C-alpha cells in the first residue's frame, strides 16, 4: 500500500523552491519568475528502496511563499509535516543564513525535529557562487546529527542542486523519502492536537497592524472556513491577483479591496450573516493597518498617494 507523507519546501523568496518541485514532478524548468502566492500542493510518487523491501511513497509536496513574515500562513502549512527540503541559493549567502535564523526554527516551532534535507540550489551559476557546499553541510549538521546513518550509500542529507540542469534534484527528494520513512512515528493524536493548537495560537497572537501581518491573518482566517485547503488557496490566489496585491509588499489600500473580494467569494458558499460578520471582522483588521504614512484610504477611492511633505 502507498504511504503518504506531507513535506514542505522552505527557504527565502527566489531560491528556487517552485523550480525544484517543477523539475522533480514534471522534469521541466522555466526561466521566468513568478512568486508563489500563499501555498500550493503537488503530489509525486516515488519508490524508496529500503534494506528489506521497496516502499511506494507518495509525497504531498507543499510549496510555500518564501517572503518572511507570513507567520500564521507558514505555521498553518507546517502542521502535520513529516519532512522538509530546506532550499538556499548558492549565489546568495543570506539565503543560507535565513535557513538557520528563520525557516528551520519556524518549522520546528510547529513540528519538532522532523527530518530535513538541505540544498544549495542554482549550482549551474558557477561564477556567482557566494558560499561553499561545506558551509551548507555545517548548517545541516546542526539539525541532522545522526540522520545520515539512515541513508543508503550514495545518498546524503545535503546537496548542491540545479533545478535548471536537474542535477541532484531527484536525489534530494529521494533522500528525504528515506529519512521520513526511517523516522516514522506511531500515529499520535495528542501530538497532532498540540501541533494544531500551536499553529492556531500563532495565528491569533501575531502582529496584525503591518500590511504583511494583516494579510497573513486574513489568508489564514479565510482558509479556516474550508476543509479543502487547496480550494481555499485557489480562491485566495484569484482574489489576491484581482486586488492587484503585491504579495511581497502589500499595501493597506489593496488589502481593503481584497477584504471586499473575499466577502464576494464567500457569498457563494456561506450564509449572508456569516459573510457579513466575517467582512466586519476583516475590515476592522485591515483598517488598523499602519502603512507608514505613504498610503491613504479614502471612502470612494483606493489610491496610493505620496505625502506632500
Ligand atoms: N540558473 C538557475 N536559475 C534558477 C534555478 N532554480 C530556480 N531558478 C530561477 O530562480 C527564479 C526563482 O525561482 P522560483 O522557483 O520561482 O523561486 P521560489 O523559491 O519558489 O520563490 P517564491 O515563490 O517567491 O518563494 C526563477 O527565475 C527561476 O527560473 C537554478 O537551479 N538555476
Ligand atoms: Mg515559489
Could you please describe the fold and organization of this structure?
By secondary structure, the chain is of the alpha/beta class. The protein has two domains: 3-182, P-loop containing nucleotide triphosphate hydrolases (Rossmann fold); 207-308. Helices cover 44% and strands 16% of the residues. The chain is built from ten helices and eight strands. The longest helix is centred in the N-terminal third of the chain and has 18 residues, at 93-110. The termini are far apart. Magnesium ion binds next to helix 1.
Count of distinct structural domains:
2
| Strand residue percentage | 15-25%
Largest sheet: 6 strands, mixed
- The mean pLDDT is 85
The portion of residues assigned to helices is 40-55%
CA-based shape? globular
Query: Under the CATH scheme, which architecture of the largest domain would be assigned?
Result: 3-Layer(aba) Sandwich
Low-confidence stretches: 185-189, 293-309
- What is the H/E order? EHEEHEHEHEHHHHHHEE
- And the CATH topology of the largest domain? Rossmann fold
Amino acid at each position: 500500500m502507498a504511504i503518504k507523507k506531507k513535506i514542505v519546501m522552505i527557504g527565502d523568496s527566489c531560491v528556487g523552491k517552485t523550480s525544484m518541485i517543477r523539475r522533480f514532478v514534471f522534469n521541466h524548468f522555466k526561466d521566468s519568475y513568478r512568486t508563489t502566492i500563499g501555498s500550493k500542493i503537488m503530489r509525486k510518487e516515488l519508490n524508496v528502496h529500503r534494506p528489506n523491501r521497496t516502499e511506494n511513497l507518495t509525497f504531498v509536496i507543499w510549496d510555500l511563499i518564501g517572503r518572511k513574515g507570513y507567520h500564521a500562513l507558514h505555521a498553518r502549512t507546517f502542521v502535520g509535516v513529516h519532512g522538509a527540503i530546506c532550499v538556499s541559493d548558492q549565489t546568495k549567502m543570506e539565503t543560507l543564513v535565513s535557513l538557520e535564523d528563520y525557516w528551520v526554527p519556524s518549522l520546528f516551532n510547529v513540528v519538532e525535529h522532523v527530518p530535513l534535507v538541505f540544498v544549495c540550489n542554482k549550482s549551474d551559476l558557477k561564477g556567482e557562487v557566494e558560499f561553499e557546499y561545506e558551509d551548507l553541510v555545517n548548517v545541516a549538521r546542526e539539525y541532522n546529527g545522526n540522520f545520515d546513518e539512515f541513508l543508503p550509500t550514495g545518498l546524503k542529507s545535503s546537496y548542491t542542486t540545479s533545478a535548471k540542469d536537474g542535477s541532484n534534484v531527484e536525489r534530494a527528494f529521494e533522500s528525504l523519502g528515506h529519512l521520513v520513512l526511517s523516522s516514522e512515528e506511531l500515529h499520535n493524536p495528542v501530538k497532532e492536537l498540540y501541533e494544531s493548537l500551536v499553529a492556531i495560537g500563532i495565528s491569533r497572537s501575531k502582529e496584525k497592524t503591518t500590511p504583511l501581518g494583516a494579510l497573513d491573518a486574513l489568508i489564514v482566517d479565510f482558509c479556516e472556513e474550508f476543509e479543502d485547503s487547496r480550494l481555499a488557496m485557489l480562491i485566495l490566489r484569484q482574489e489576491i491577483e484581482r486586488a492587484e496585491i503585491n504579495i511581497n509588499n502589500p499595501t493597506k489600500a489593496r488589502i481593503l479591496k481584497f477584504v471586499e473580494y473575499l466577502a464576494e467569494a464567500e457569498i457563494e458558499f456561506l450564509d449572508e450573516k456569516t459573510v457579513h460578520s466575517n467582512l466586519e471582522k476583516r475590515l476592522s483588521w485591515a483598517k488598523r493597518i499602519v502603512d507608514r504614512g505613504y498610503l491613504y484610504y479614502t471612502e470612494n477611492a483606493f489610491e496610493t498617494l505620496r505625502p506632500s511633505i
